[in-house]
Every structure is written in structure tokens, then in C-alpha cells.
User: What shape does this take?
Amino acid sequence: MREFQCDLAIIGSGPAGLACAKSAAEHGVKKIVILERNPQSGGILNQCIHNGFGLSVYKEELTGPEYAYRALQLIQRNFPFHKDPDMVEDGISLFTETMVTYISKVVTDIAKDHQIQALSPKGVLIIHAQKVFLAMGCRERTRFNILTPGTRPAGIFTAGAIQKIINQEGLMPAKEAVIIGSGDIGLIMARRLTLEGAKVKLVSEILPYSSGLTRNIVQCLQDYNIPLRYNTALVDIIGKKRVEAVVVAPVDENRRPDLSRAKTITCDTVVFSVGLTPETDLTKTLGLVIDPATNGYQVDETLQTSLPGFYSGGNVVHVHDLADLVTMESERAGAGLAIPRVPRSAPVYLTHNENLRYIVPQLLRYQSFGPLVLSMRSTRVLPKATLTIISEGQVILKQKREHVTPGEMLVVTLPEVLAQKIGNDLTVNLDEETL
Amino acid sequence: MKSSQDVVIVGAGIIGSSIARQLSQYQLNITLLDQASDVSCGTTKANSAIIHAGYDAKPQTLQAKYNVQGSLLWPLLAKELAFPYRQLGSLVLSFDEKQDEILKELLNRGQQNGVSGLEIWNQKKILREEPALSSRVHSALYAPSAAIVCPYQAAIALTENAIHNGVTWLPSYPVKKISQDKDGFVINDEIHTRYLINASGVNSDKVAALIGDTSFTISPRRGEYLILDKQQLVNHVLFQTPTPLGKGVLLAPTVDGNVLLGPTAIDCKDPTDTQVTQNGIDLILSQAKTILKDPVPPVISGFAGIRALAGDDFIVGPSQVHPHFFNCAGIGSPGLASSPAIALAIRDYLQEAGLKLIEKPDFDPCRHQRLPIHSLSNRNKDLLIQENPNYGKIVCRCETISEQEIIDAITAELPALTLDGLKRRLRVGMGRCQGGFCTPRLLRLLEQYGHLKPAQINKNEPGSNLIYNETKGARHA
Amino acid sequence: MKQELICIICPRGCHLSVEVKDKTVTSVKGNACPRGEAYAKKELLAPARTLTTTMKVEGGQTPLVSVKSQGEIPKELMICAVQYLDTLTLKAPVLVGQVLVENLLDTGIAVVATAENLEQNLEPVA
Assistant: This one.
């Protein structure tokens, strides 16, 4: 059994974990340990072989593996870096094939550290950390999460699983596919399946809009004449051994399917791209507050969770549409956990109107310190909208936004001069502008 | 022709595997065969997973007799064969005075059947023991001997132990023809046996008909279920008060910590019709809603199983057509609870029919199973990983299953050579991600250690392949 | 003639309104940056895309390596290009940025590796 001390333990080496490590090191955190369950760092980026990454962070368009490679290079070039070391020294130590199984908080006077237990081919690893950054990312929602009836034959995959099977294992699991849900991974996989020789017969979306990026609808579906049908639900899966067909039906405004207009589509593969949900299960026993709107950790402006010393960023806080946004958020966390701040007399809980589904951070705990970044999602499509930020009755910021959709995250940065104006409350409203 | 057998058991569900294990302690040549590629692929893989206490069955029936006897045999089986068994006790819930009366009838019936420890609980006691229940609950019948097991884990354990004690396992072997000679039966013109046991579930009427026994017909009835993520929601197996329409939807913890809801009960013509319907989902959720105080937690999976019914009671015993052909048919609920008792009954029938039972001196009643890595102490984890580093490589993160545990299952004497086979033995792919993260790795491990080509890797039976070919080169070949 | 387009240069997805006369673009509106105008012209006259796919690797730690075209290729060549790349087999090691095909289907565009795939039994950098 190996047992190490460190200043910061990071769970997960996807874009969130790597960005937090780099940023924390830049802000003077000495001993940083990253725990990664795969043989290489990068997380899900490694299977996202498509481009579209890096425009904000690296100012150039990269693929997922390149983005992961750059993030690791930045760490290797600028800080002492140790991969699977025999002991933990100053700098950043990356432990691969290391699966965290349990985290406990220890808050006695003698041991002020948090304890992380992990398993690897070298045995049990125990890490005592002053601070913990949770960067476990998210998992895909599945067929029964959305209560899809039908049989359970072979040929039913989540988009991420089929992505990994095709892109990393080099195996072809489909001839004729129907994709359920028009999230980004679903759109990307529609193109990927087509390029590898399968026929994608339909992308079916229950909502009246896509939750994926518009550019992906153009370059993944329209380029290959793949039909996308909105307001359409999957109502049955047919087939005993392998999928033989799916039945889809149009839905009314309450998302109830009209079975009289149901249509059977023969196919051997159903790909579910029906949303992602933060992977918070590891900390279940710690009782961290989960925001029911994001299903992720509730965090403050330093990305600290409800448990002191535990920070988080990326898709385990809220599901982002771009890896760049994950990187930027987690860099803020690296700074947030390294720089001491002056607490407010009482935390400010952010509120918003009905056109917004959530805002991250959910609360402000500290007095103003640099610019304040707010990430949020709308509840519906707004062609033209005004975003207003109000504190104690005073409008701090008013911005016009176009083409607001729930599929694209809104990010607002309040410069320090404006952030200083925040008093004892903070409200963000998104209002539709009528033409 | 393969060597002559003393006993052939057709069907490796919980009944067939219980009989195989029971008979494996005697000096006999025994073959257990199944049309499927693995054990427990029929009714056994998809049912309520409950060892009923025995108050429900009508007195004087085989169901009542075997249920009460069988439920007492499970604790020792679980201990010897190292599979999980938890005696939680069950509650039949009543929500009004009319139902209170039915509970009294059940109490009465249970006492007649010889079920011990039955009690009627009042609302206060129920809510103290089951705080998640709706306060509309009125009273309940408590049965302390009710328990939960995992039926396919039990069938796998029974078969593994039977194989360990010399039973021959013959998978993927459908019985198409049975001819008779002076000395017994010949199956498919290949296997000769002196005694034949028909434990073939939904196919048992067809197998019986092969020797001209048409005394019963199987009516398949589908039951649909939903599974919730791991959580401490309820502490007992919770039934609704039975109505003339059926037992209603139950709510029970599983041995793995999930919560099971169901079943529905739909008569169906096709014995392989295991679809989950929208109506079924709606019915299960609406009934669960009436039992629980809070909204029903999120569903992670669903499945359907077929119960093979043949009239009102089990059929267990010699066929009228041939005294050495034994039927175990129409084993609906409480078949799981009854299975150890049915195995004993079949042993006695065989003896009566002239089969000599001589005990094996070297019979080993125990299955020597390595504990799952996640359940070990840190010290023992380290020892195991030192011995083989693959025990430290976690493949299934939802259930914390290591690569070596998967390799062990693939290369076992009763091997798991399909994704469902791995799932049933290790729970890989059964957690909240439902295989999204680990399926690609499982495919490679099955390829490497099961010596299968990617296109030969099935979810379960042939034709349920996940992969067609390699992406590169194959389509140009 | 007026045509609506969605710019796909970056994930922002600007909605463009484009005027076309005699096979030339006369005006582009709705773009947040100059790249949008360039995109509109190209998209209507000679649409092109960056290709991302995988190639087979022999002797590597994994069976494949992810690759991309180092620039855009005509849109209609995407499927042909994948089919062509599928016929090639690389030898490990393959490094990030390594040129694997110099001139993809005579487009003048190279194909480069976007990940590394080192020889089996060698430790990867990370």
C-alpha cells in the first residue's frame, strides 16, 4: 500500500483536471497529484477525434486528442512533471490506471487532510490532500433513463460508447442506424457512422429544437443529407437478437406521442444521445450539495463546493458544450483554491427568472476579487433577448443577445469594476425582445 | 453416440441447476443441457428474485408444500455456494379496511401452510420500519422468513458446483427428438440416458410432447420490471394486497443494493416476448407512486421475464407416459423459493423409480469463490494485486470490477462468453452507466481471452452480435 | 438571390444572410467576424471541410491513430477520402503532427496524426 501527502489532489485528468493542475501550479500550489483511471490523460477528449476544440483557449482549431495533448504539454513544459512516480515530490504527479474508490473528509485537529483511496495495478494508493479538486466529468443518460419501451436486443448504444468502439477500438457496430437525440455527440456520431460506411436513417429529437451546436447540424447532418426530425419521440424498439426496427411518433406540446401517426423505421442500431449528467456518485457519502437544475455540485465563485476544501469544475459541475469552457472554468478553480480571499458577511445566492434554467456559480461567498464569470443556460429558444444583471435594485449590466438556445451556454464576464457593485443579492434575468 | 448417462436434465434454469447440484453428490453420470449458450437464460434471469415465505399459496398445493420447505433450505445453499442471500422479511401492505380483512385471510392461510413468525403490523410500526412509505398505509402482514437472492447468480453457483462435482454441462443443445429404447431414452439420436428430467421452463410442454406426453400446456405470462439506482429506499420486500386480478406491483431491494419494481402480468402467446411496454412502465410507476411518500427515484434499467404457467399448480413428478421421464413444469411463482425442495422431490422420485443413489465420498458441497476485489480490505486488495496486477485495473467503474475478475469469468469452467454472461456473473455494465463506459473494453477482453473474433461476440445468443467487422480495411476486402 | 447560411467556422454558429448574383457573392450580413464573410463565399461556391478520421496502425499500443486533414478538402471528397485512408496501414510509432499522407487525393492537403501511438511495450509520454 502506497500512502502520500499532497497539497492538492485532482480526480480526473480530462480538460478540467489538467487545467486546474496547471492553474493551481501557476498560483503557487506545490505538490499536486492527479488521479486518472485510464492509461493516458485527457479523458473523453481522446475519443473525440473531430475538430472544433481549442478556438478560445489555443486560438486555433484542434481535434480532441490534440487538445488533450496540448493541455498536458503545457504542464510538462512549465512545471516539474512526474508520471506514475514512486513518491510524490513538488510539481505535478500524474497517476494513471488509478481508480478512486472512496473519499473521506477528515477534520480532526491532528489530521486536517482529506483522504482519497484508489486502486491501481500497483496496489492500493492512499492520498492525503489538503484540498481536493473533483473533475470526474459526466456520463451519458441511457435508454431506460428516458423510459424507452421495447425489447433489449444487441445494437443499442449510447453515442459515447459507439464513439469509443469506432474511434478507439476500430470496430464497426452498425449498418443502418437511427440516432435518438440531437445533442452534439449524437450529431458527431451521425457523421462518423456515415464516414465509416453505415447509413444513418434519421436523427430523432423530441424537443422542437436541437441541443447541439448549430454548426454540427450543418456539417454533420446537412452535409450528408441525414434527416433530422424535431418533436419526434422514440416509442418502441423492435428486435429479439439484434435491433430490427424502431418506431417513432410525433409528439404534442406536452411531449405526448401521437401513436396514430407512428412510423416504423428498419435499422440494426439505435444510438442514444439523450443528454449528459454529472458523475457525482463518488462523493455520495460526503453529502456535497447538488444543484437539482444541473445535477452537479453547487459551487461558489472560486468553484468551491458546499464542503470546505473541496473544489470542482467542468462537466461534473454542469455539462458544458465546449471543452474550452471547461478549461477556462477549471483554470478559475485552480486560482480560486490557491488565492486566499476575504469572505462576505453572508453568502449571496444568485437568483434568475424563468427564461434561465441555471446559473453557475450558484452563490458568492467572497468579496469581489477580479472579474466574475457567470455561466448559464436558457430554458427555451429566444431569437433576440436582453440579459440583465441586477443587485439591490441597481442594474449592473445589460446585454443584448441573439439566437439564444438551451443548447448553447451563455457566458457573461463581469469586469472587476462591475463585480464590485454586487451587494447583498444578485439576480440575472433573460428577457425576450419582441421585434 | 456420446457415452450413456444415468440422468439427463433438460433446462439449466434454477430448477435444472438445483436438481443437477442435488444429484451431483451421488455416483451417477449426469448431463445438464440447455438450448441456450449459458445457464439461467429463461425465466430464471428475469423474475422478482424473492424467496417467498409461503403464506400466499393455497394450502394442500405443491406450491405451498415446496415453497415452505424450499425457503428453509436457501440459507445453507447460499452459505455453501457463496452467493448473496438476505433474509429481509416481507410486508404485504393494506391501504384500507377491506384489504385489512384480506391480510387476515393471508395470515390464516400462512399458518395453515406452516409459515412461522407471521404478524400483523399497525401503521405506526410500519412507518417506523419503512419511513419511505406513504402515510396512507393502513396495516401490513409481516413475514420474517421472506428473503431476496439473485436468481441467476444462484443458478450459476449451483451449476458451477455441480460441474465441480462431476456433472457434464452441455450448452447450446436444443432437444429436438427423444426416442425410447428398453433401457431409457436417446436424445437427438446422440445421447443415451436412463432417466430424463424435463425442467425446460417455457418449452417444457414441447419437450414432454417429444415422448408423447401432452398432459399439459404452457401459457406464457410476461412480467415487466423497472430497476432504480442503488439506494436505501425500503428495508423489506413490499407487496400490495392481492386482488382477484393479481398480486400487484412489488417493491423490493435487490441483493446488489438496487430497488426492483414490478412485475406486470400479461398473458402472451410468444414465450420469447420479453418486451417492456409503455403501458407496463406506466402501470409500474403509478403503482409505486401510491406506495411511496415521495416521487419515485430515477429508473436506470428495465426488463421483462416470462413465467411458464401450466394451470393453477406446479407439475412435479413422473410422466404418465414413461415412469423414468420426470416433469418439472408450470413453475411460476413461487418457483424460485421452491426450487431446492423440488430438487429433493425429484431425487426421491428417481430413487422410487429404481435409480440407485450411492453417495460420493469426495462430494464437495462448497463453491470456492474469490470475493470481489471491492469487498476486500486494503491489505487483501494489495496481496491480490501483487499476485496479479490485473486485479488493480478497474474496468467497470459503476460496480468496481477489475480486469482480472472479468478474465477469470471468461476462462472459468462455466465460462461467460457473452456480454450478458459477464453481466450476470459480475454485474459489469449493470450500473448506472449501463455499460456505456466499459462495453468497448469488455469486447476486447472477450476477443482476447474468449478466443472470439469481434463479429462473434454476442450480447447473448447467436445473432445478437454487437460488431460486424473492423472499421479499417474490412469493407474493401 | 438571397440565401441563409449558418457559419460553421467556429462553434458560435453565426446566422448569415448572403446575396448571390451571377455566381458571385455580393453581400454577407450577420457575421460576427471577417471569417464569416469568407466562409459564406466559399460555402456557396466551393464548399470544403476538414476531415477527421482514424487510420490503422501496426505494432502500436492501440489498433488505430486519429488523424485529420491539415486543411480543408472539397466537401464531396469526404467519404472517398475516408475510404482511401482505410486502405493504408501505418507502422508504429506515430507521433502527434506527423505527416502520414502528403497529398490526399490530389487535393494538395496533407493528412497528419492528431494523437500518438507508440510501439507496443514502450511507455507513452503520458
Summary: The interface with chain C takes residues 470-473, 475-476 of chain B (CB under 8 Å). The CA atoms of residues 114 and 330 of chain B lie 23 Å apart. The first helix of chain B runs from residue 14 to 23. Residues 1-86+148-217+310-367 of chain B form a domain with the FAD/NAD(P)-binding domain fold (CATH 3.50.50.60).
